[in-house]
Amino acid sequence: MIRIVIAEDQALVLGALAALLKLEDDLDVVGTAGNGKDALALCRALRPDIVLTDVEMPQMTGLELAAHLQELGLPARVVIVTTFARSGYLRRALEAGVRGYLLKDAPAENLAAAIRVVHGGGRAIAPELALESWSAGQDPLSERERQVLRLAGEGKTSGEIARLVHLSEGTVRNYLSEAISKLNAGNRIEAYRMARNAGWL
């Protein structure tokens, strides 16, 4: 049996994914979580073979979850199932050790097949995303620039960001300025939108 933990913040989607996978004789959904933090705790406790997760979730994104699993040396292989068809997300996912990346509008039978491929040591990437990823530009942002730009996009001031990430306000402004410059944007909100649309946040 392939043991699976599902992390998805939309209850309806979570229930549908669990029900779909339970129809397969060789797949066993051993736990579900509504956010990345709870999913990480489940993975530490249950040590599943596969973690099925979305990209954007509360408390910890699917990409952060994948990176933590890799850092902790946990055996779970990560398959992302998302609506975000952005090459930037795919590149970051692969860097975080993700083995599968599927879109939610893919045929249902593709999911079980992808889980089996990933469990067997292979990769399962949506073909349309793989092609787009090779033609898209590289993410120019550093991890810090990405962090402060994400908070700026949420409407936080430089002072609020400084307190949240434990930096001086001047340093935060420097990171934001650098991100705006790299993206050739007019201001922090435009830079946030550009980076988000590219899948870099």
TrEMBL record:
Residues 3-119 form the Response regulatory domain. Keywords: DNA-binding, Phosphoprotein. The keyword DNA-binding applies. The keyword DNA-binding applies. SMART domains: HTH_LUXR, REC. Pfam families: GerE (PF00196), Response_reg (PF00072). The modification 4-aspartylphosphate is found at residue 54. This is DNA-binding response regulator. It comes from Massilia aerilata.
